[in-house]
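Give me the fold.
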Amino acid sequence: MGVAGHPWVVLGYFNTVRYQAEKVGGNCISLSRLLDVNSCFDDCRLVDCQASGNFRYWSNHQDEDDRIFCRLDRVLVNVEFIRNSSNSCCLTLLPGSRRVTLLLAVPGLGMKEFKPRV
């Protein structure tokens, strides 16, 4: 049984931003790096799940002038997931450490909390 035609949810820590606007501070992300990650997601036909919360939560914890904030964790879904669960959403909860908690709410299935393993 293949995965085509089935709902997908891919979530976790991707160690890169998808768009330059997801990063504040530090050097700009190279265009080739942005193209690589977006090409991968596009090839897999994945899009960001509707989300709310603090998107730029990761920080290098440096002094104010050298501080960097960016979005490294995300929830991606495919079209079949959207068709089956159009009212689903992801909530990014503020972390107590460098790790974030992603809360995925799917109507009819409730909420599922995901914390990366350290």
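The CA atoms of residues 1 and 17 lie 33 Å apart.
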